[in-house]
Amino acid sequence: MSKCHLLLLMSLALSCAMPAALVAQATSSIGGLDAEVKQSQIPRTSDGQPDLQGVWSYATLTPMERPDDVSGKDVLTDAEAVEFEVQTLRRQNRDLNVPAGNVGDYNNFWYDRGTKVIESKRTSLVIDPPHGKIPSLTAAAMERQKRIAEARRGIGLDEPTPGGFVEDLGPGHLRVRCMLGSHSGPPITPGAYNNHVQIFQVPGFVVLVDEQIHNARIIPTDGGPRSRIRQWVGDSRGRWEADTLVIETTDFLPETQFNTRARFSASLRVVERITRVDADTLLYGATLEDPATWTRPWTYEVLMTTSAEPIYEYACHEGNYGLVNILSGARE
After folding, report:
1. Within-domain flag for 247
2. 218: Cβ–Cβ under 8 A, 6 or more apart, which residues?
3. Is residue 15 part of a domain?
4. Is the entire prediction scored with pTM above 0.70?
5. Does 108 reside within a domain?
6. Which of 5, 163, 205, 272 is deepest in the core (most CB within 10 A)?
7. pLDDT band at 243 (very low <50, low <70, confident <90, very high)
């Protein structure tokens, strides 16, 4: 992170006052999570907006898509949630379930997906479509995926050093080169570890700093024009709709990807919504729309909870000579 970024973040942290305003008690379906808006002192910034600042954890065992064995069921019972947590933690334990020949997937203590399903006990983070699944890929997207898979099958076979293979990784090279985190967003998505984001606010700006790859996303909320310059994380602009921060991001570079299942097109549009539910909880939601990738828009939501832990340095592997050894092991 540059000195300019650090100075900006320090000034943001020091300049925000935290007067509180009473939020009336109500029970509402916020984006489908049926969260209870509790009667509490919700802090506000000096310009009267809800104060979203702090370090927030979005770790959860709730899967992005609804598993087939709970098809048609939106919410787990208390007993089902406990059993789901036990079985999921056992299944994800890398010390117990290392596939034969896997040289790097071990030491489960490195993983930090959380230990609980989110409070709503939903069976998936996806809330739209209602069946809890990400929409099907378009024909064009499937062709893109096919080309990426073909390139990956040839990784390293003719390269004695990793100098060429990082290019062959296609959209994955952003992570290999430590340029972007795999789930830092936009949109922010729960992952295997580093599920923390720190939020800063000043009048006219909100900053999101994700723990993975330490990218500071500086988002104007003053209604100014877009830059229309394509970037890895797109061009984000925010606005307040009542007490919800709405962030609309467009103009992504086409190499950006959401997960291993789909590589975006340049027409991707992401709309994020962040609402402070109570003193300890944010509701984060994201709607993804890309007609060249999915057959319809889709939306997921996750609860973020306040974290007593600070954001730690994410020391990525720039210049990591272990890549040569990993490729050598794969060839053997």
Report:
1. yes
2. 8, 205, 207
3. no
4. yes
5. no
6. 272
7. very high
